[in-house]
Amino acid sequence: MKAWKDYQEHKKDRFLNELIELLKIPSVSARREHREDMVRCAEAVKESLLAAGADKATIYPTAGHPIVYGEKISDPSKPTVLVYGHYDVQPPDPLDLWHSGPFDPVVKDGKIFARGACDDKGQFYMHVKAMETMIRTDSLPTNIKFLIEGEEEVGSPNLAEFVKANKALLDADVILISDTAMISLDEPSIDIGVRGLAYIEVEVTGPNRDLHSGVYGGAVANPITMLARMIASLHDENNRITIPGFYDDVVESGAEERKLMAEAPFNENEYKKELGIDAVWGEKGYTTNERTGIRPTLELNGIWGGYTGEGAKTVLPSKAFAKISCRLVPDQDSEKITRMLIDHLYKIAPAGVTVKAELHHGGEPYMTPIDSIGFKAAAKAIEATFGKQPIPVRGGGSIPICALFEKELGLKIIFMGFGLDSDNLHSPNEKFDLQNYYKGIETIPYFHQYFAEMQ
Amino acid sequence: MKAWKDYQEHKKDRFLNELIELLKIPSVSARREHREDMVRCAEAVKESLLAAGADKATIYPTAGHPIVYGEKISDPSKPTVLVYGHYDVQPPDPLDLWHSGPFDPVVKDGKIFARGACDDKGQFYMHVKAMETMIRTDSLPTNIKFLIEGEEEVGSPNLAEFVKANKALLDADVILISDTAMISLDEPSIDIGVRGLAYIEVEVTGPNRDLHSGVYGGAVANPITMLARMIASLHDENNRITIPGFYDDVVESGAEERKLMAEAPFNENEYKKELGIDAVWGEKGYTTNERTGIRPTLELNGIWGGYTGEGAKTVLPSKAFAKISCRLVPDQDSEKITRMLIDHLYKIAPAGVTVKAELHHGGEPYMTPIDSIGFKAAAKAIEATFGKQPIPVRGGGSIPICALFEKELGLKIIFMGFGLDSDNLHSPNEKFDLQNYYKGIETIPYFHQYFAEMQ
Question: Which parts of the sequence belong to the Peptidase M20 dimerisation domain (chains A, B) (predicted)?
Fold first, then answer.
């Protein structure tokens, strides 16, 4: 163990510089114009695995963006850890709110700023550097496999097919993912669940063309107003979602779990101050941590319609659009909720407009069993480097592919995330604290050690 | 009179080609990038007045876009008609819905398609060609003044100052405006009123940055959802506007006027079919013609916020925006309603977000007295060329400067419009029927004749 630490201590600058190079590639999976950047990024990931000591690394083309697979089989009799991560990133806009270019990484105040710094390039790269450490110091207690995809941010549309077709290749004893956050370096935590997702787009059409708002205003249903009415009706006065049946499959958390959650450190004043808001919001009867952890949600991700340019245009538009997504908790089913949401929007469409809605992507919620070897190894590894036991928490984000992994590969998933909620994931000025980055690289070898020992 | 008709019959092609040249200039007043096009268009208007026989024509710079003034004083003892029009046009977007370029005029099926074809280049140019006709045939019975501005579509912010500073220059006996529509060539009508306008933009801010909708969703007020709730609350279940005091100053139309309006030709099925809608909409207790004529309205002209690009982005945005405008009727006051609307939006701002709203532009409603010489001359002129008496109607649009004209110049305004409601004003594929264009050029000299005779 001393050897790991020594090795890493002398390689810190290189570990950072390599990450910076990876962050320079604008691997935005949602945008067609970045197709070639995606290929370039997959190549860079493959090369990084080989450079870190992998026996082999391969790029698998898909109908979308390529998947990178790599492995170091030290001894087939040892347990195998499959690391899952993604090299694609969210679109960087709104660009004018970034203090530096999203793909011109800048280190400032001990943090690295760039799109993907935390989500997920910085986090999966910790595993590459941890593997390098264990290989170079001759202390790898496991076999390691890497599955790094390029479509996580768009719902992993091609990963399921790859997993189903490559079960032997991906055979392992546990899946380890660093794509979540911890409370803080002082209060380490482990996510024991991720929420599911149902993301749709809705189009409301009124008249067959944009109209003069003076000549037709007041006499023709305005699609913006109608869409606003539909959106406003999706929550009731207690901010509960009004779609009939939406909560039917939600497993209510017991008093015990809610009591434990209430003990997790949370300062509402700090939270409000950090976000610049004068009040929190959400479903009545639940705390902020519960609202983002154990409860499903419905959020508007985007809206547009009519004239959005400079100045004034007196138009009654033909169309208005919105992007809407729900976060789901066990045992909600993504497909069922998507269908429910779309059907509901059709049903509440006001007279005078027509509604079209379709799925963008979805994913199932997932819960980690805390009595599994994987969870215990992760908790012990964190205790080893942080000096205190991690708090189990339920994260609000989604990793759509988890349920599929469990079903197809029969493996449990451990979320060992080293990000922070304040890392501006999906926002301008995404960052990753270098302390967290190095702490992650330091902690991961312990996981492999304990996971091997506990078998 | 025969001389006019003969003259015009032989000049039809030139009258069309000159209009086409004017329509090629993208004089979009709302967009800064068209500043030079605006100057070019003002020059073209000035040249057209001189070519038509004006004694003089001058471009007056303003803090915004220039004003063109021209005159033909045939005899100071004759009555003077002041023609008001505008050479600026609405922004052409959405561009992808145009069948041909908005500034590449195309003649098809007897109609000319281009932005500004009807509103208002085609309509004010009829007056230029009518003046040419009367001058060239030595039969001008009046003096004519032209006031053609470049900021009507953005609320005429600099016209008031010009009018106040140039009262002697603009001294006249009546103001004649062709910037409205008639029911059809078979059912000629004259607008006896235009609605006022109060156009604002509202910005709703939630958290101080875009957030990950998984990490924060359900716990932080979403500005899109909050804006939608605010918009939805602006009309009640009878589609009446809910802003306290909004209807206080509305002069309710009497049973007699409503009875007359009900007699105007209107086919609801045709109306719905032409717009592609399955139901009309509006304030309970009023007909479609009443809703667009005698009632005030509140319409959403634009909305935007969050991620509006391709694909999916799971963001809880920091901001959402909307453009909202009210059409006003006598005796509503634009400034008062603007204040009322903005104050109301501040008042209904939900906890967790802040609201900022500001005026884009406004204008007062205006009614033409039907017992005035101007109105009688217009009605008689239309009867002379259309063979039937025009129906007096109340139009839905706004010409913000009318109330100011009356106050500063002490003149009544006559709306002698030759457009059609189906001309796609402010919409893609704006057009002007050539029949209407020529009919307008034919009718205007009669107005001058009757107006002079009736003094």
Answer: 193-351
Say whether pLDDT at A39 is over 80: yes
Measured in angstroms, the CA of B320 and the nearest CA of chain A are apart by 8
Indicate if A334 and A425 belong to the same structural domain.
Answer: no
**Pair A376, A404 in one domain:** yes
Q: Would you call B31 and A310 a contact, using CB atoms and an 8 Å cutoff?
A: yes
Number of independent structural domains in chain A: 2
The residue type of A421 is: D
Per-residue confidence (pLDDT) for residue B1, from 0 to 100: 57
Q: Are B354 and B347 in contact (CB under 8 A)?
A: no
pLDDT at site A46: 98
Contact B209 A97 (CB under 8 A): yes
Phi, psi of B145 (to 5 degrees): -120, 145
Among A219, A304, A314, beta carbon nearest to B426? A314
Residues in chain A within 8 Å Cβ distance of B154: 311-312
pLDDT score recorded for residue B384: 96
Q: Which chain B residue has the Cα nearest residue A325?
A: B314
Q: How confident is the model at residue B311, as a pLDDT?
A: 82
Strands B366-367 and B189-194: antiparallel
ipTM of the complex: 0.85
Whole domain around residue A439: which residue ranges?
2-194+365-453
| Tens digit of each residue's pLDDT (9 = 90 or more) over B127-139 | 999 999 999 999 9
Are residues B122 and B186 located together in one domain of the fold?
A: yes
* Contact call for B299 and A222, based on CB within 8 A: yes
As given in the structure block, the two tokens for residue A127 are 């595993």
Torsion-angle region of residue B177: left (phi > 0), alpha (psi -120 to 50) or beta?
beta
Q: In sequence order, what are the residues at sequence separation of 6 or more whose Cβ sits closer than 8 angstroms to the Cβ of residue A193?
A: A293, A329, A330, A365, A366, A367, A368, A394, A395
Query: A71 has which bridge partners?
Result: A56, A145
Percent of chain B at pLDDT exceeding 70: 100
Instruction: Using an 8 Å CB-CB cutoff, list chain A residues near B201.
Output: 312
How close B275 gets to chain A, by Cα (Å)?
A: 5
Would you call A148 helix, strand, or coil by DSSP? strand
pLDDT of residue A81: 98
CA distance B85 to B118: 11
Q: Which residue of A has its CA nearest to B155?
A: A312
Q: Do B275 and A327 touch (CB under 8 A)?
A: no
- A186 and A206 share one domain: no
Q: Are residues A325 and A415 in the same domain?
A: no
Within 8 A of A325 by CB-CB distance, chain B residues are 213, 217, 312, 314
> Is residue A152 among the annotated active site residues?
yes
Q: Are B355 and B204 in contact (CB under 8 A)?
A: yes
Give the CATH number for residue B407. 3.40.630.10
CA distance A141 to chain B (A): 34
pLDDT, tens only, A67-126: 999 999 999 999 999 999 999 999 998 898 899 999 999 999 999 999 999 999 999 999
Q: Given this model, what pLDDT does residue B263 score?
A: 84
Is B130 part of a structural domain of the chain? yes
| Of A104, A43, A42, A86, residue with least CA distance to A179 | A86
Q: Among B334, B363, B392, identify where a domain stops.
A: B363
Question: Which of A27, A203, A225 to mutate against chain B (most B CBs within 10 Å)?
Answer: A225
CA separation, residue A98 to residues A25, A88, B200 (Å): 17, 19, 29
Question: Which of residues A342, A363, A384 is at a domain's end?
Answer: A363
In a domain, B287, yes or no: no
Collapsing DSSP states into helix, strand and coil, what is residue A191? strand
Choose among A299, A314, A421: nearest Cβ to B316.
Answer: A299
Of A18, A151, A152, A290, the active-site residue reads A152
Instruction: Provide the b/e sequence for A385-399 (b: ≥16 CB within 10 Å).
Output: ebeeebbbbbbbbbb
Does the annotation mark A88 as catalytic? yes
